[in-house]
Amino acid sequence: MSIRWTYVFADRPAAHLASAQAFWTAITGTFLSAPRGEDDEFVTLLPASGVDACVKLQGVWSGPGGAHLDLCVEDVPGLVKRARELGAETVTEHDGWAVLRSPAGQLWCAAPWHGESVRPPVVAGSRLDQVSLDIPPSAYEAETAFWAELTGWELLTGALPEFRVLRPPAGLPVRILLQRLDAEQPAAAHLDLACADIPATRARHEELGAVHVADGRHWTVMRDPAGGVYCLTGRDPETGGLPSRG
User: Fold this and answer.
1) 150: nearest Cα among 94, 106, 92, 194
2) 3-state SS assignment for residue 202
3) Angle ∠(97,64,195) on CA atoms, nearest 5
4) 154-157 and 163-167: which strand pairing?
5) What does the pLDDT look like over 172-228, one tens digit per residue?
6) Alpha-carbon radius of gyration of the chain
7) Residue 53's closest CA among 25, 79, 73?
8) Which CA distances in Å does 92 have to 96, 99, 108, 213?
């Protein structure tokens, strides 16, 4: 089962969707598609012509939101079947796509591939290129095995013991970071940007309405104007890797 493309979703409270749209289009150098869904809750962030989108926004009606991943394939029923064999459960089935839940409880979607093949460029020294799956300790090994088996991507050790990375084949736009949390809590997800210069990117994001939350070893935690947490990470925006690792 070959993953042909990936999308990341920033899920934000519907009441603040407009501010999320303004912020995320600005930092990614994109513009909005026409809204979709029964309540106009879905939009795609469209880059300049000649490249394909890989980021979408969704307005949610309960909770603070977060992030989730879409895996795009030529055979959606086949991906759903394989995911269920590996321990996922189907949440809802739609016409041509499905919402599933990973063994640790992370929501994601199996979606059809529409020929996407050219990833968006680096914008102002950064690129949104990673979804971090934040996993409780008791579920970490099984959840890592699930995503590694499902995607077939290369599993790498991270810069710290609590991190592993699934690196996709060249040309796919989104990596998966598997982060082991310090304490037992529900699985969640957030988005990461690879940044050539974290302080410069942070300053630009703050001008656009984001707020600094905390600093880590190789990253800075931010909160966007819609209240969603994301990270600026010190990685090469072209390769996605740490400068010394590629």
Assistant:
1) 106
2) helix
3) 80
4) antiparallel
5) 999 999 999 999 999 999 999 999 999 999 999 999 999 999 999 899 999 999 999
6) 17
7) 25
8) 11, 5, 11, 35
